[in-house]
Automatic annotation (TrEMBL):
Pfam families: AAA_31 (PF13614). Residues 118-280 form the AAA domain. It comes from Paraburkholderia hospita. InterPro entries: AAA_dom (IPR025669), DNA_Partitioning_ATPase (IPR050678), P-loop_NTPase (IPR027417). The lineage of its organism: Bacteria, Pseudomonadati, Pseudomonadota, Betaproteobacteria, Burkholderiales. This is Partitioning protein.
Length: 401
């Protein structure tokens, strides 16, 4: 008996037409999953705050809060009083009013004069999975809870930040809603006109769309036709009128050194690099700086010296288990980045994983089904990092008395 030992040959050829069919099927699947992820309500809603939480943020006790809320002639929100009259529940907008009027946080130029001097911060990293986009949103939320007005700008065609802001990029956003027209045809479009509000009081967004990829074709084409074309200045110039409207503008870039990412880096006053303390992530960060340095030589020669107020490396998803490689990689990061490495670290946590599943962050959660300690373990360092960032700039403010 002869046994055929040859295994069947698997045809691995893939045609473009079959990719189109695959894409259609995948889009349908994602659409189905999205409805489950966002169930039961597709629109995101902001968290609410108890009187205890508002009092803690404002650094007053509950008795003082109750007195100020019920004081005759007070302009402060009273919140929703519980049936027993002992507690109050505040919306996010109400909580921010308390923070702006009662807390000891320094009032910003925007709050004092109505004209901002926004600082532009870019969140950048080559490596996917570094929590770059989630960190961007958390920075915006944390700064808004310090009473600041924040604009987030999504420069990533994947539009993950846009979805964290509660917008469905592929169905609710078109190319004209993004930074693209204002970058490609700045004489006809303004970034001021594409700003949208979000579910989170104090945070606006310029959303992204997959069509942002077009910048990677248009900008090099313009550069080849005009050697003096400074493509890296387009976003910086476009943001100038927007700076007057906010305390902070936070840019979320794609995980690559794209033309839009370069625009974000050159428009920014400061850079935050979320970095997971794992070997591949560390090596990837080194590649980022090597490529950016090469481009930077050209920018400096044509545009003068670029200076960042600071570069901050923020360790994220830090695993503190004894078997983790984090301590070793942390030592590498410390050796490489020195003072750039923040002493604040964001631990790995199931709270972050659960948040990602619901397209949300730890700041979005009013009530947590698990242990509150688990939630606070992640939120506290993010709060601390936002305070550090805000203190860095608020100390420089010259607010008219």
């Amino acid at each position: 008996m002869t046994v055929n030992s040859e295994l069947p040959v698997i045809d691995r050829e893939v045609s473009l037409s079959s990719l189109v069919e695959f894409s259609d099927n995948l889009t349908a699947l994602v659409s189905t999953l999205r409805s489950k992820i966002l169930a039961p309500q597709p629109r995101k809603s902001a968290p609410t705050f108890t009187s205890t939480q508002v009092a803690e943020i404002c650094e007053i006790d509950r008795a003082r809060l109750h007195y100020l809320a019920t004081k005759e002639g007070s302009s402060l929100p009273t919140g929703q009083v519980s049936p027993n009259g002992r507690t109050r529940q505040f919306t996010l907008a109400e909580a921010r009013q308390w923070i702006q009027q009662v807390s000891k946080i320094k009032r910003s130029p925007l709050l004092e004069t109505g004209v901002g001097q926004a600082k532009v911060i870019v969140s950048s990293n080559f490596k996917g999975g570094s929590c770059k986009t989630t960190t961007t949103m958390c920075l915006a939320q944390g700064l808004s809870l310090l009473g600041r007005k924040v604009l987030v700008v999504d420069l990533d065609p994947q539009a993950s930040l846009t979805e964290l802001c509660g917008l469905y990029a592929e169905k609710e956003i078109v190319q004209e809603d993004t930074v693209l027209p204002a970058i490609l045809v700045p004489e006809d479009y303004s970034l001021v006109d594409v700003i949208q509000d979000t579910y989170w009081d104090g945070i606006d967004v310029i959303p992204a769309h997959p069509s942002l990829f077009e910048a990677e074709f248009h900008l090099p084409a313009k550069s080849s036709k005009n050697p003096g074309f400074k493509f890296w200045t387009l976003l910086r110039n476009g943001l100038e009128p927007v700076r007057k409207m906010y305390d902070y503008i936070i840019l979320d870039s794609a995980p690559s050194l794209s033309y839009l990412t370069l625009n974000g880096l050159m428009a920014a006053d400061a850079m935050v690099m979320p970095l997971v303390p794992e070997s591949l992530d560390f090596i990837s960060s080194a590649s980022f700086w090597s490529l950016f340095a090469d481009m930077g030589k050209t920018f400096t020669a044509l545009d003068g010296e670029k200076k960042f107020d600071f570069v901050s490396v923020l360790l994220t998803k830090v695993d503190y288990n004894t078997s983790s490689s984090a301590p070793v990689v942390r030592s590498w990061v410390n050796r490489a980045y020195g003072d750039w490495l923040s002493s604040i670290e964001v631990p790995a946590s199931s709270a972050m994983s659960s948040g990602a599943l619901r397209i949300s962050t730890v700041f979005d959660i009013s009530k947590w089904d698990g242990s509150m300690k688990t939630l606070e373990r992640v939120r506290e360092p993010l709060d601390e990092y936002c305070r550090w960032l805000d203190n860095f700039y608020s100390e420089k403010w010259e607010v008219a008395q």
